[in-house]
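Structure, all two chains, one model.
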Amino acid sequence: MENSKMIEVNHVSMRFNLSKEKHESLKEYLLAAVKGKLQFDEFYALRDVSLEVEKGDFYGLVGLNGSGKSTLLKVIAGVYKPSAGSVTVRGSIAPLIELGAGFDMDLTARENIYLNGTVLGLTPRYISEKFDEIVDFSELRDFLDVPLKNYSSGMVSRIAFAIATITKPDVLIADEILSVGDFLFQEKCEKRMKELMAGGTTVLLVSHSIEQVERMCNKVTWLERGRVRMAGDVRTVCEAYKALDQGTEAGT
Amino acid sequence: MSLLKAYLKDFWRYRYLLYNLISRDFKLKYRRSVLGVVWSVLNPLLMNVVMVAVFSTILDMRSAGIENFSVYLIIGQLLFNFFNEGTSTAMSSVLAAAPLIKKVYIPKYIFPLEKVCFSLVNCVFSFIALVIVMLFTGAPVHLTIPLALYPLLTLFVFTLGVGLCLSAATVFFRDIMHLWGVFITALMYFSAIFYDPVQMGGAAGEILRRFIGFNPLYWYIKGFRMAVLDGQLLDFNTLWVCAACALVALAVGLVVFRSQQDKFILHI
């Protein structure tokens, strides 16, 4: 079935130009251009990555730091435009990449719920309908009219998670979000994600906790230095990934 | 044409975001000030008093004299302020929105657009100052006043176009922020805010009359004054210059912004 593929990533590469000196002023730039010193170090955060996520998948991405997991999520979310290749996403996306994007620390939580909701493309009426649900989930009713700058980071994450998961998105993209908050809240988040999945949401998750990936995902892609090292069934890939851990330990 | 259609479709989808961003700016601007939004009226009013005092005594450039100088002056002031505020805030809007742009997909033109809209809201509020000055000086109420909407709206489009260009350029070269400040001060002296080039004598008047037509702002201010102050219909020249400048600026702005927007993320 053609339509069951929610996310298709086709041979995506993401290249960054790491300029040796950053030319942020016109003068510097022109001088460098005249002298022929405009050099860039090319850096590929992703190289020829392909993956397919089907409807109802709980898809995991694993890999060491700097392997390109977050970059891939951002490419899928439309934040980065890939240097090569293409990305197709069917349906609505709720990106949970670094929670609280678009929060204004000077505004109160109430005002931020509306602002952030519209950043995610919700209508004010819909937010009003769901307002109580958001507040209850975040358990922060007493602090609704306090400016966000007076919140602890855990409290900010709670609000952000509550807003981002209030819709029933077709695709939920989650980057390390379950590592925020205390363990009770983490359990609550996991529960909410399972609920969403039961409602037909496809989830793409990045996590450093291999146990969490094993527990929640059904398919996994393992990225290494921007390339796909291994992809497939959760058990096979996770075993191999864990073997890497033992391998390096054995080597040292 | 399809480009414009895509923009409009995006705009419709994100209209609530636009509204919320404007209301955020509004709240933050007046938070913790006792008089709040009254400052939008009081500020141009006080500036007007100062400028009238200066330009009708020390630096009198009116020559033959301008009828109702206070109203003449405040119209120039308000429209120029709108352009100044709109372009200057739009310029740094993309940079200021970096935390957002790095994390979620939002059509990026919404940031300069929001700043220009916010400036327009401020400008409309400050028209109360214009009304006060008109009442105070006993200026006649002309039936042509609604025609002032035309220069105002075309000025909005013009400002948006310039703002789009500037915001895209500033991402790559921060210098533009400083340059623009100087440029806009120079521009202010060539926008016929506190003098009338037609009535100005001497060599300066000669030069001004020849070159001031190249300044689009002159035409918007002139059109607005014709409708509000002189009670005249807008002449053909004013009509087409206002529209042409607006459309050209917007077209250039959209093309520049669109061609660069995917690279923003690598530079902010």
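Residues 2-267 of chain B form one domain.
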